[in-house]
Write a structure and sequence with these properties.
Layout (H helix, E strand, L loop, with lengths): L3 H6 L2 H20 L6 H12 L6 H14 L5 H18 L25 E7 L4 H13 L2 E6 L9 H6 L9 E3 L9 E10 L8 E7 L7 H8 L3 E4 L11 H13 L5
Parallel strand pairs: 1-2, 1-5, 2-3, 4-5, 4-6
Helix pairs in contact: 2-5, 3-4, 4-5, 6-9
GO molecular function, one term: RNA binding
Protein name: TrmH family RNA methyltransferase
Pfam family, one: SpoU_methylase
Amino acid sequence: MITLRKLASLKDDTRRRKFPLLLQGFEENLKSGGSINRVYLAGLADMILRDRFYEEKVHKACRSLISALETEGKEDTLLWSCNSLRYKLQSAVGAEPGDWDFLPSKNEAARSERVSGELYLYLDGVRSPFNVGSIFRSAESFGIKEIILSEETCSPDHRRAKRSSMGCTDILPWSYGKLDDLVHPLFALELGGTALESFPFPEKGTLIIGSEELGVSPASLDAADSSLGRVSIRTGGLKGSINVSVATGIALQKWFNTFTF
């Protein structure tokens, strides 16, 4: 770790970029139950406090951190103080966080193996790497056994897909395939279908997810309509639609909780 003296000698912009990184290191140690150098952290907070570049909300967060450091045995309060200060520092330099920048929750359940059923997902022309990654993250949580991708779908190996998946593209099996390769019965998440609450979700089958712009392709819709049909999510907004990754997560949660695996 860089010494406080060396940190103070850096150019202003460089030093200000270092501050959040150093705080993140402290957060990781606190999350894992490790020890931290309280003297160093107090010196870091004092250095930030004396930097007039920052607004009062940053200085206030510094004072809260210093106060937390003065109280032994309040590791959760200290963690929250570090986290609050870090994001205020990032905001001060215009570096707003993406979902993939967040540290994993210390309460995140760890399992030796995934809980899944014969549930499959077919991404039919989902082109945004962010959406692909987000869908993988929901699918990993809600029991999907494998994701099959149409040739028009963005690769899960795309840098942004891997980041937004929070590592789930490396956990969940996936492959490129065609409609003929899918496990039946088939059903599509699309407008004009049976309401989510009353749809007869199968214990085994494939849910088809369409593209952000055009929805499910005509060929896939025909295949779904000849099988289980369409499932729809009721909304109350003026737009009448929601992001494809959000919609997928809602449908997968309902499907997964219909059965006990």
